[in-house]
Protein 1
Amino acid sequence: MSVPAPFKTLLTVSTPQGSYTVPYAECPGSPEVSSTPDRVMARRTFLVSWDRRWDFCQGMLGWSELVTKNGGTYVARVLPQPYAAVNLNTGLPPIPGVGPDAGNLYAVSVEDMRGLGVPSTAPLTATTRSSDPGVMPTYSYTFARITIGYELPHYQMLTDQQMANPAFALTATPGPYTDSFGNPDEAKLVRYVTRHSAPAIISGQLPGGSVKYVTDGAQAINKMPFSIQQQDIMLIWRQVPLIPSALFTHVGCVNNAQFVDNSQAQQSNTRYSFPPGTLLLAGVELQTYRMIGGRYAHDIIYRFNHFDPSGVGTYGHNYQIRFHNNAISYEQISADGTAGGQALYASADFNLLFRAV
Amino acid sequence: MATDQVKDFNTTLSVPGIAPVPYAEAPGSPEESYSGMQGKLRRTFWVKWANRWNFCQGMLGWSTVGKGANSSQYVSRVPPQPYFLGNTSPATGQFEYWLYATSVERIEGIGPYRYKDGTTVKASTEDSNNVYNYELAKITIGYETLPYRVYSDADMKNGITYAPGAVFQAVDSNGNPDESSLLRYVSRTIQPTAEHLKLPFGKMYYVTDGAAAVNGATKIIPSCEVLFTWHQVPAVPQAIYSAIGTVNLYAIVDYCPGVSSSPFTYDIGTLLLTAVEMKPYRIIGGLYVNDITYRMKYLGNPTQYGYTAKLEGGGTTNVAAGTKLGHNALLRFLNTVPATYDYIVVTPDGKNDNGQYIYAYSDFSQLFKLP
């Protein structure tokens, strides 16, 4: 189909396999922007050739796919299209390497898509599976009028190129955010990861004779309650086109090395770092859906319990509170009483939870 | 629309099992959208009034009990109509259906009707149910994405491409479509759970001086519930009633959507069937079907965490690594030097050759087969 005269602009979509373009025109009256205390939204309406409408929508909303490159497989991201309607960085320091677009709205939905012009029922030249009895044809129109909804995502979005750029620095950990193959590494938790945390206390009872009154040194009564601070942390890995094999094998394990969480670095320009043994993977939840275009994706929810009473990683889940020699301390426990003995919780590499393996 | 325009219905819905239905799509159709991680679509058609239910049934599809070789039975599927969007990956040209007809949003009569006045029939085309007889039906069909894969019987026999470059022919020993492959009409939900295990005193020790840990220790045993829902099943598998409270005898290979290149495998004994929920309903056309949800508790095979697999307590035969573990293995502190603990299979007499365990084993593939 030839490009109609009004279509003077091109949507250019970069994909792992190359790039493609779709001519479009924005309708008069577009955009519409609205805001509530906790939400900013925009709506834009476009005209696109009917036969390119889904190419346009897919390019607007983006997608994720597995790509094998340099001998390794990684999660490649085609980002949704941004819309910088509002300067959401006002009052905030600039984000290194991201620039003024950091507060962009991004295309998240195709609110409405319908045909304009005279309908035609010309036969489709569809690529179908051989066993299909035949797909019902549908009308073909001259134009599609498409309404795209934009919102603020709850996670940082970086392109594959930004992830691999050594000069890129989003957090205290400078780029590149790549794995050993040189491919984008989502285990760095700098994109498509949301974190929720809920600090709380766990309650217990003091053993008899463990503490004493200061006035006269007499032993305090038994079964006094006490509380220890801990934290439930939920990391949600978004729009993941696979189920990592570590998903089940790592449940019930603690992190075997420092685990760095950059998922909210955009706000604070800092990162969270969890020393070995302080994170226990307590559960996993999957939410499966289909991205626009039909590919399957999962939002994978990892539920961790963070236990670090020292605050600096001296202790973790394999330590227990002890009242001993007129002092309170946390001490490592094992099955045979040696440092190398069998621990309460085995250790595992938590980076594998966020990689395509 | 005038009656003579019916003859202009130049397209036909052809579905095995029902007579072909000529139809025309209404101008302005379709309307498409994608929001909240859910694709949606609405199309409007005209068909002859008398053909309306045939048309709707052909659009939404159905499931029946199929008969195969050696008196075998299987679930035969006439899938809902897919919506063709063109090549859905503009970069790679990869093609896959992802929107299916799931609802009849509205059927509306158009044109002159006939009616019955007392005992007098006022028109020769009167409906036998005393329903107004219109000329045409204007039918609005809703399309949605589904939480499970949709394949025809022929697809299952020809081979399913469940991941790029990976094809699986899902047929049983009689050559029938085999839904125990979990490749079609099966959705799954995974929910985390955890239990707190109070360890006995004197089994864990402080590293600093070797003293026994006060109050032992509490170990969190994480696990998860795996819910498999088998959709639109026209009969209830008999295995449901015998498999409750048992664990899987064989590894379960789940070709679930979104795996990379390898299907996910649940090892032997790691899934305990704790409950079954059946939701009966009638699909369009009146056929009875069920959505059957199998609620299973998953307990990871301890060998995954580096523990050994063996039998202890008077037994003489060690259990082969990777077998008979999961729910039938209990945590035990061993009198080894140095002291360790392990997951050990338990039986009534400490041997593994009498076939008795805490949980019996059963073939879970029968949960997805008929009868």
Protein 2
Amino acid sequence: MPTLPDLLFYASTLLLGAGLVLVMSRSHAVAALIGVELLLNAALLNLVGGSLRHPGVWDGPILALCILVVAAAEAAVALALVLNLYHQRQTTNLHDTTSLKG
Amino acid sequence: MSIVAAVLGGVFLLALGGLLIARNLVYLAVHLFVVLLATAGLFALAGADFLAVAHVMVYVGGILVLLLFGVLVSRGRLPGPPRTEVRQPLAAMLVGGLVVTGLWAVFSGELPQPVGIPPVQGSTLKPLGEALIGRYLLVFELLSMLLLLALIGAAYVARRAAVTPRNTLHDAKR
């Protein structure tokens, strides 16, 4: 039976792996964004699991709150970019946006 | 506690598997919802009550709605459900599997174990709020500025540019 910090670390590892797979293999922009959210969630879980080892120190939870805010800002900006992409190209497929390709 | 942890872990694993299998974007969002709820449950289990509630509010109330909104708006009149293509799943699975294996080995290895976690006494709301207004005040203010600027920027980027002519460079080259 793993301890609670170990459980959080294992969960964060799995979230990191799933997020990486989604970011690398899905071609719809929103699906890739879901992967990015999973990566940020993995960081959150890791911070909370680490802060369990140091009760009374608030660095971990405060940094987790920072990541929460950054995730919200990132989702807003990324979806604005997706909407703009759709308005300009009528597609949200990341593999169709290759105009910078050499 | 261990029963709750086991149930949460099972739900978490199932939803994570669904997230990797699903091709329909709406199913992806539903699985993400369950993963986020299970994560918030893990936070609550770890005694981070404020973080659990904030997590549900920000992710489920904000980001998930935003993602679904993005799927809806960027579809036009395409028939059928919104689906995502999958390119090179084996390579992605390989990289993800390697990262998970490595990190798993680290976490199950010789980490210094805590001498013993004291049980959570009451809510973390008061000490967290005092830390946020006291020692971490600059961080708090910078975060609020970051969020404000990012939202203004997002609104600016997402507006429909009706003034720009349609035949810009990339339209001409297509």
